[in-house]
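Subject: sequence -> structure tokens, single chain

Hey, anyone have a minute? Need the predicted structure for the following. Not urgent.
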Amino acid sequence: MLVGMTGNMGSGKSFVCQFFSVLGIPIYHSDERAKQLLVEDPELVEAVKQLLGPEAYSSLGVLNREYIANKVFANKELLLQYNGIIHPAVRRDAEKWHRNHVAAPYTIQDAALIFESGNYKHLDFIICVTAPLKTRIARIKNRDGIDEATAMRRIENQWPEEKKVEKSNAVIINDGVAPVIPQVWNLHHQLLAL
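Reply:
Had a minute. Here:
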């Protein structure tokens, strides 16, 4: 079974995934793989350079994340085009990865944009991790070293949390108050029973 783990930026998807990993569930981290594919896949590198210019990479081929983030998060149309290049490559990579883990009772694909990318159509079950907006902003600021306005611009490029919750099969609350481990444990057993 292919399970998607989604939630808006700063919700703590990676944190929640760690608990599933401890239970022996393989996790595909879409953001991490996308970063690798953006430097390893020559076709993807060329497509990004065509869209955003050669400044998207250093002379040594290192991805210029700050340059890219500044460009795409300031222009919704450019962000759509950028995601239109990356999402199909990640989807192909994830499908190959899932096939290599058929012995597991289920696998999890951790991806913030499961719904926005259309990837939900390829998954059997979707979990949404939620956290209050204030908490998410604080986490993003701390993680990325950016100000609140920049964090909000990034959040605004994602679907509203309520919309993701509505379309998901299950929700895990990661607000720093509700215990996460019992939620993961219960959901794990629910997934094993499917």
